[in-house]
Amino acid sequence: MAVTPPRVVTGHDADGKSVILSDGLPPQEHPMHGAGVGADFLEIWSSAEAVPSLTSTPDAEPSLRPFTIMPPTGHLIRMIELCPPSMGGRRTVMHRTRTLDYAVVLEGEVVLVLDDSVTVLGPGAIVVQRGTDHAWENRSDAVTRMAFFHIAAEFSDELLAKLPQPLDLME
Question: Where is the Cupin type-2 domain (predicted)?
């Protein structure tokens, strides 16, 4: 990552007072970074629980789970830097996930590719991604930084009746 954002995790001490448990880059033990990928994924936090249990301290480091685009349950937050073509960046494959995603463009410019259109997004743009087939592409000369909030979801019967079967999901 060009700029490594700190992750500050709070918790509680033995007396129930609020404290900082960690401050810095979360451990990253996955292959999703570098020119071969065309992007850098920074796993920030995740929980398999739909409604997370708030404890004094977390049971384990959530960024050390095996990498998946989205775990089968729960939610996660990650930062992604999409490289420009000059740094190995390329369009992602068209993909669909079983998630509700909030994607926030923090820096740079990115193209959201859908089945019927493309939309150029700049800093401050927020995409509410609702299980649609899509791709991302950085066509600029600079790195694009985005924050993604992924929440496990389910397709309604009404929508499943319209989608191609079998449903090809990226997980």
Answer: 91-146
Assign domain 36-152 one CATH number from 3.40.50.10090, 1.20.58.100, 2.60.120.10, 1.10.3210.10.
Answer: 2.60.120.10
Determine the pLDDT at residue 69.
Answer: 73
Q: What is the pLDDT of residue 152?
A: 92
| Residue 29 pLDDT exceeds 80 | no
The yes-or-no verdict on residue 51 having pLDDT over 60 is yes
Amino acid at 56: S
Torsion of CA 45, 50, 55, 57, to 10 degrees: -20
For residue 155, the Cα-to-chain-centroid distance in whole angstroms is 19
CA angle, residues 140, 100, 32, in degrees to nearest 5: 50
Beta strands per DSSP E along the chain: 7-12, 18-24, 39-47, 75-82, 99-107, 110-114, 118-121, 126-130, 134-137, 144-152
**Region of residue 41 (left: phi > 0; alpha: psi -120 to 50; beta: else):** beta
pLDDT tens digits along 114-131: 999 999 999 999 999 999
Burial status of residue 73 (CB atoms within 10 A of its CB: 0-12, 13-18, 19 or more): exposed
